[in-house]
Amino acid sequence: MINLITAAFNADLPLFIWGQPGIGKSDFVRQAAAKAGWTEERKAFIDVRLSQMEPVDLRGLPVPDMNARKTDWLPPVWLPFEGSDWADAGVLFLDEASSASPSVQAAAYQLVLDRQLGEAKLKKGWRLVLAGNRVTDGGVAFRLAMPLANRMLHVEARPSLDDWTDWAIDSGIHQDIIGFVTLRPSLLSTFSDALKSKKTAFATPRSWVMVSTILRASATTKPETIEKLIAGAVGQGVALEFAAYRKLKEKLPDIDAVLQGKNVKCANKSDVRHIATLALAFRVIEAGEKDLSLAQSWSQYSIKWLDALDVKYAALFISVVLRKKNLCLQGAENTAWVMQHKDLIRFREAETC
């Protein structure tokens, strides 16, 4: 999705991103903009909720000039018009666009089609991105006016385990959540089932962020309270599966011993071995942030131990470790193993080594 957004930036064409709630549409836009160097700190990124606006919020206010006997319009200061102090290039992101009333959509026509409102023109370097839920997504949504829709590129965002895992590792999402979702990919988003059953709590990339926040703030919270909060975020069924997954951690082998190169036994259960693989991967990732040579040594021991269990676990370990930016698996043994089994490994794009 980030590559699609970047391509639209390069073509300088307005883009509309459609997708279910909680999928991370706004995060995709922010990441693509940051990749181009357009951030809020640089006054090069504007994020507004079109659903919360009235037409006058876009068009500005009419101010009478009694001497000239005419009316001028004062444009809003939050838009990057020529002559404003906004950066010369950036991204104007109009979120919740499909939830905006038809009158607000009409006011947005000129902004999207002509890149101006009245006499006020957007700076030439600014890109336009809109996002919203579909009419079928169960929220407040209006059909996009055809003249407006026909002047934009349209893409649909869907939950992607690879993209989400990349983002989750870089963003510090709780390790238990990353491990659980990689084991049960279908539970990254349960929106479709919730839409049919009309449940109010369901799993999405957004609600898993809430679960991560709950887990990190739970030092003095009773376990039963934590479980109820998690169920309130992702739904009762998913919460029960997640709790069972976390309980399996009690059956893990001695991870420290594995990292020291010792021959440690592991239960012959796929879910326990999956958890052990992720536990080793995260220890290597954490080590790599402080001591790259230690991370290389630990990865070598981990690959050897996991390969003895099953080659698929060693491949999973490498796939997760290489999703961490700026962390490469060097060393003759690591490199040889990667080259021999590269068809099993899912790399972060353009960041293998």
Brief overview, please?
This protein has three domains: 2-156, Rossmann fold; 160-181 and 198-248, no CATH class; 252-353. 48% of the residues lie in helices and 12% in strands. It is built from 16 helices and nine strands.
State the low-pLDDT regions, or none.
348-353
What's the main sheet like? 5 strands, parallel
- End-to-end CA span: 24 Å
Q: Determine and state the CATH class of the largest domain.
A: Alpha Beta
Helix fraction, binned, reads: 40-55%
Classify the secondary structure makeup into a structural class.
alpha/beta
Radius of gyration: 25 Å
Number of domains: 3
* DSSP summary, beta strand count: 9
CATH superfamily of the largest domain: P-loop containing nucleotide triphosphate hydrolases
| Helix-strand string | HEHEHEEEHEEEHEHHHHHHHHHHH
What is the CATH topology assignment of the largest domain? Rossmann fold
Count, helices: 16
| Quaternary status | single chain
Question: What sort of overall outline do the alpha carbons produce when their principal axes are compared?
Answer: elongated
Bin the strand percentage.
5-15%
User: What is the name of the CATH architecture of the largest domain?
Assistant: 3-Layer(aba) Sandwich
